Amino acid sequence: MATLRRLLDTPLPTGMTVAVIGISLALPAALYVLADNLRAMAGGWDQTAAISLFLYDETQDADANRVAADLRGWPEIAQVQMITREKALDEFRALGGFEEALEQLTSNPLPVVLAIYPRNEHSPPAQLETLQTKLLELPEVDFARMDTLWLQRFQAILELIQTGVLLLGGLLGMGVLLIVGNTIRLEILNRRIEIEIMELVGATAAFIRRPFLYAGAWYGLLGGLTAWLLVTLAILLLQGPVSRLASLYRSDFPLSGLGLAAIGIILIGSILLGLIGSWIAVNRHLRGTEPD
């Protein structure tokens, strides 16, 4: 606690150092939260039909039901959902913004659609393309659309963001080491005379090193707490605009923040970075404090 009181006796330098550490740690933490929320959003899209079959306009509901019943017996298919013309038009009307155009229609131009949900073992892209080619051979099918391609691209973007989080976290972690190391080096220079006196009375290197290590740990802990507060504040500020955007799509998407595990990793990691940075600074500069 004596080390903490010493840091609090100089609030401006301490606050500036803690703020820089906090911002450095908050950047990769914010990217992690972004990727985690996008992953949660994509989790609800995994249930999207892999293939949509658009039947010819002259296909009646009875014929579409017969085709759907036949497809449910295929070993590659887990589920088939039929979307009638009326249901498709109702969903289109529910989107809003097309009321005037829909009023000009004299008949329903939308076709019957069969949403195909394959079994897990037939979900890879290559097997989906094979299944789509097989489905296109049905006489009632006009054309087909694979609905998972965009989801696969989205998953690839998520993997890219995750890799970016690791790279950015590593680079900014090295930055935190430099910040703490430089701060501890200045502290050593300011206490040079005190250290020389301690060495004259027989203080060991471990005894002299200990308060600087404590200071590095406190810098790391305070910086980690600052990063957590910054990310939490950003989530609170963004929740309103995100909720309004989701409401336009008739949805509700609450943002999730840092979980307990992520907070623990940030705090423990920041303390370790502070300890390592201070250890390097002390070992490098402590020899220069020996009396002549």
From TrEMBL:
Residues 170-286 form the ABC3 transporter permease C-terminal domain. The chain crosses the membrane at residues 12-35, 160-184, 217-238, 258-282. InterPro entries: ABC3_permease_C, FtsX, FtsX_ECD, FtsX_proteobact-type. The keyword Transmembrane applies. It is a multi-pass membrane protein. It is found in: Cell inner membrane. Keywords: Cell cycle, Cell division, Cell inner membrane, Cell membrane, Membrane, Transmembrane, Transmembrane helix. Its main location: membrane. The keyword Glycoprotein does not apply. Residues 50-142 form the FtsX extracellular domain. GO terms for cellular component: cell division site; plasma membrane. Gene3D superfamilies: 3.30.70.3040. GO terms for biological process: cell division. It holds the Pfam family FtsX_ECD. Belongs to the ABC-4 integral membrane protein family. FtsX subfamily. Part of the ABC transporter FtsEX involved in cellular division. PANTHER family: CELL DIVISION PROTEIN FTSX. Forms a membrane-associated complex with FtsE. This is Cell division protein FtsX. It comes from Thiocystis violascens (strain ATCC 17096 / DSM 198 / 6111).
